[in-house]
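INSTRUCTION: Work out how this chain folds

Fields: amino acid sequence; protein backbone structure tokens

Chain under study, with its fold:
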Amino acid sequence: MMRKRSQHRSIAASREWFAEQFHSRANAWQERRAKELIEESLDGNVSLDVLAEECGLSRAHFSRSFRQSTGMPPHQWLLSRRVERAKDMLCGNGDAISDIAARCGFADQSHLSRVFRKFVGVSPLAWRKSHMQRA
């Protein structure tokens, strides 16, 4: 009788693990495809519906799977990629921050500044100045 109970627990644990691994997380190809679409659309908008459809998932399932695979929701991941692109542009040349904001898909300079400060901790101008001094 003891053996059956422990065997039952291990089967239940295996089922839970399988469900977590294969039903709640995005498959590797789905995550890769979603990231490709987001990268291609950094300077514009890509809707959650389009991402979900490309991955063959419902909108809710896609959002949940993407979050569990990457550690952040799709929109946060998009914003983090835009900030990384803005950092590259801030180091690369002396373009106006408003131009960089537009090329990175932000609505305006203020939007870039708010998001940049949230992710990096300082304004884009302060970040640029500190990285220009290092170079």
Q: What stands out?
A: The chain has two domains: 25-69, 77-134. Residues 19 and 36 are 26 Å apart (CA to CA). The chain is about 80% helix and 0% strand. Residues 25-69 form a domain with the Arc Repressor Mutant, subunit A fold (CATH 1.10.10).
